[in-house]
Amino acid sequence: MTDDPWLDRMGDALDRADTLEKGTYFEGFAEGETIEHAPGLRLSRDGSELWASATLNHDPAYWRADAAAERGFDGPPIHPDYLLACTMGPSVEDLSEKGGYFLGRTGVRYHRDAVYPGTELRVESRVVETRPSSSRPAYGIVTWETTGFDAADEPLCSYERTNMVPRREPVETDGGGSSRNESGRRSDPDLPTELLSPDGPFFEDFRDALDRAEGRDAAVAYRHERGRTIDDVLISVLPLRTLNTAKQHHDADAMADSPSGEIVAYGDVTRSIALGHARSDEATRREIGCDDERFHGFVTRGDTIYGFTRVVSAEEGEGDAGRVTFEHYAVNQRDEPVYSGTRTALVRRR
Fold first, then answer.
1. Fewest beta carbons less than 10 Å away: which of 122, 163, 186, 270?
2. What is Dmax (Cα atoms) for the chain?
3. Which of 126, 168, 123 is nearest to 23 (CA)?
4. pTM for the whole thing?
5. HEC readout, 325-342
6. SS3 56
7. Which CATH number goes with the domain that contains 271?
8. Residue 50 is part of which domain span?
9. Considering its fold, how many domains does the chain have in total?
């Protein structure tokens, strides 16, 4: 016993006290409203390099002044994956901290060729759509358009994402909905007989491989050799460095009774690892954007992430780069898909 009754009766006090909740229930969102998120990050070279190094995105243009100058940059810019994660991070507390499945993201666009360290990021979101879940009465479905701006209110990065969000009060449902309607996942045809790989990392290599596949039961698709095992830096440090407050990534006690049974990796970490594997086999000049991104399963500490890529198209461009569209997949050590998305980038010519 002590002379402080609060210490002696803390368990009783915790049971009786109200909890000041974080996050927003489904009923709190109204279509068309704009949400100004708490002040975001000052993008730093240290943060960008930590993100890029931990996710195996080792493009020297984001590290070295000479490589950046060869690309036409004024200096090493902020890595686009870090910019995207920092745009999403401050939005979590207002939009999705209550939990609920991440159903997808599309329309990821980078509005500048380069964003530099020292840029102060401001983030806002517009509620695009709210609708009931046809299969989960305790949840609704919300789509937001989120944009990151600099101090001059010039857009830097934007995307649209859709989440299940818990309701304050569950509603009745006829259970007639399908997961396809709610997730938007595509139904892919049978795999082709032949899977071809490009002869190198340049635009011409991707274009020529697609030409070889033309008129045959073939596709340009290949796996990447590297794997990356999820460790404490990836699972907790990276999301917290982007101001992502979701308990899924750092509160083991809260997650003990969740479907995963433990804390899980931030989806943008999984995505960035998959894209890092792919970029290591490309002569990428600049990112254009991503669409149809989905996260298909839990990624937890100790899982190893591998990458698989299909080349969709290669279009002639101006100057020393062409436009290539890829479909990327991340799989774990059991070959289970955990991420997929379509990405378009400018790839250097040979």
1. 186
2. 84
3. 168
4. 0.90
5. EEEEEEECCCCCEEEEEE
6. coil
7. 3.10.129.10
8. 19-348
9. 1
